[in-house]
Amino acid sequence: MDLKKLSIFLKENDIPAFRLNQVRDAVYKNFAASWDEIPVLPAALRDRLRHGIHIHSVDTLDTLVSKKRDAIKFCFGLKDGLKIESVLLKLMSEKWSLCVSTQVGCPVRCPFCATGKKGLKRNLSPDEISDQFLAAAHYLKTRGTQKIGSVILMGMGEPFLNYDSVAEAMRTMADPELIGLGQRHISVSTAGHVPGIRRFAKDFPQCNLAISLHAAEDRLRTDLVPLNRTYPLPQLAKALKDYIFSTKRRVFVEYVLFEGVNNSRTQVARLNAWLRTVAAPKYFVVNIIPYNRTGGPYKAPTRERVKLFAELLEATGIEVTIRKSMGEDIEGACGQLAGK
Ligand code: SF4
Hints:
Layout: H1 3-12, H2 18-28, H3 43-52, E1 58-65, E2 71-78, E3 83-89, E4 96-100, E5 103-105, E6 120-123, H4 126-142, E7 148-153, H5 163-174, E8 186-190, H6 194-203, E9 208-212, H7 218-224, H8 233-247, E10 251-257, H9 265-278, E11 284-290, H10 303-314, E12 319-322
Parallel strand pairs: 4-7, 7-8, 8-9, 9-10, 10-11, 11-12
Antiparallel strand pairs: 1-2, 2-3, 3-4, 5-6
Helix pairs in contact: 4-5, 6-8, 8-9
The site of iron/sulfur cluster has 12 residues, from loops.
């Protein structure tokens, strides 16, 4: 919500300032999504606000719930007609995790990713990022289900290519007077944007950092994640080394597994060796994400091949998790968000 705009509106209309706090609490703490859901305001004031101020900068156009009810995809409309997507995932039994978008489309153009195929349309504003949380929280509230316990900025877009807006949205999410998520419950996933990692280490040392690595050799990684051309692996390794040195935090390494491309024994050895050039194994958790088909040339590995890769990597002393694919039937799985 644009609180600055609301504050100006209240001043210009000689409405007492305490109304701002009432609206802020209703929207950020009770997840009101319409003026009628804020009965503490006089009806006449609600009427004036309805015609002057949007509570959310995103409108829910569609929601899709996966068969297993462990993923809910939102299609949000922006005020200029563009669309973005967010996904709620049930990672732990009690709470939801929300994956939010930071750009409309993405300029990185990873060849396996539905978002990347469309290129970049524009950056999202800070409100357009944090309002995805408010809209999803409102959805859950109206269904009386569990709350959102964590946020990961890894939906559509490369967060660090929209750093200032992402940082402001993260401050809104962490601010106890606003959304109030603990910083440790906020994660950013980058394709390896080195200047962004360096700023993030200074600005958000308590938040979590995830790197979409997918390969530990430059030629292959440039094919899979074209941003690697600008920030090749030695530069990325140095940035991560400095990040770990200054924050003492672990880094989550995302590794999408493609059959016959990056899942051989040699690739396991390369990944292990590269991580060790950065820091000791205790500083990493490698999340293996079996590829979800998005119509490209890549093949999904079998369950056995995924397990073998994980076991071989684990045997090197690195903590490994295999991400269970959720939301594939609603195209809400990793790499499938396309703002359709
Ligand atoms: S995988 Fe991430 S960085 Fe790559 S194109 Fe898709 S959204 Fe962009």
